[in-house]
Design brief:
Blueprint lengths: L1 E6 L6 E6 L2 E7 H5 L9 H10 L9 E5 L7 H11 L4 E5 L1 H11 L4
Parallel strand pairs: 1-4, 4-5
Antiparallel strand pairs: 1-2, 2-3
Length: about 110
């Protein structure tokens, strides 16, 4: 399973990629695009993660997005992710639950 995690959408957007339970890439948007626009999906960071893992968008099974998001942005973001990753399930997570899941699921326990 390939899971794409997106966080910091409001302030410091970033993407991380987990493949078969192992973290394979993590990139901040402003490191690859030289900018980070609050509220925008970090697509350049996503593409950098996929490139690093030698995967394509069609390989992503789940796109997990960390809340909070800007007011009213959930529907637009969901539609954008469904268009960018047609084979993926889109999941919105609470900020703290995302931290716990990233520590637990990527660990050997």
């Amino acid at each position: 399973m390939v899971i794409l995690g997106l966080g910091g959408i409001i302030t410091d957007a970033a993407a991380a990629l987990v493949k078969a339970g192992a973290l394979v890439a993590a990139v901040e948007q402003k490191k690859v695009a030289r900018y980070s626009r609050p509220g925008q999906t970090p697509l350049e960071a996503v593409d950098a993660c996929l490139h690093s893992a030698q995967l394509e968008r069609r390989h992503v099974d789940m796109a997990a997005v960390v809340r909070p998001l800007a007011a009213g942005a959930e529907t637009a973001l969901h539609l954008e992710l469904r268009a960018a990753f047609p084979n993926a399930q889109v999941l919105l997570l609470d900020h703290h639950a995302a931290h716990a899941a990233s520590a637990y699921y990527a660990s050997p326990f």
